[in-house]
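Service request form, structural biology core

Requester: graduate student, group of Dr. S.
Request type: structure prediction, single chain
Budget code: on file
Notes: please return the result as structure tokens.

Sequence provided:
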Amino acid sequence: MAEYPQHLVRTHRLFDGTEVVVRPIRPEDAAIEQDFVRGLSDDSRYNRFMGQLRELAPRKLQYLTTIDYDEHMALIATVQRDSHEVEIGVARYIATPGSDSGEFAIAVDDAWQGTGVAGILMLDLIAAARGKGLKAMEGFVLASNHKMLKFCHQLGFESHRDLGDGDTVHVVKKL
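Core staff response, request fulfilled:
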């Protein structure tokens, strides 16, 4: 595993002045990642994982928190609550083997949606992807996830309906 990319740790202020730290995830973040997923609404979990789940299986949790910071990057947004770090969002990309693009995914705690967290996470993730030489970011969004499709459009992603799969929309942004 590569050295922790400290240069990607950033502090941001949301529209309301709340301080949010965005940083690469670490293996020791497994507990706050699990708490984050458990805290998502059923709809938010379905939109992110495209299926029903209540929590991450141990193997999936390890996969999502033990990353190489090169081909697989995940940034979490955290706030301090009662002197504890609480995860409020996560964005990640996984480089597509044999290409110069990466597939992204993002989730933001329901209570924090609409606060600017998603935009901060995605802009920092795009910057990290560019820094690793990726030329495009792509994702698959449920066609029923209108908020995510609008968000992607606002960030300059092009959307293409997947032929043969009416349930998802393929979104792509050149970096």
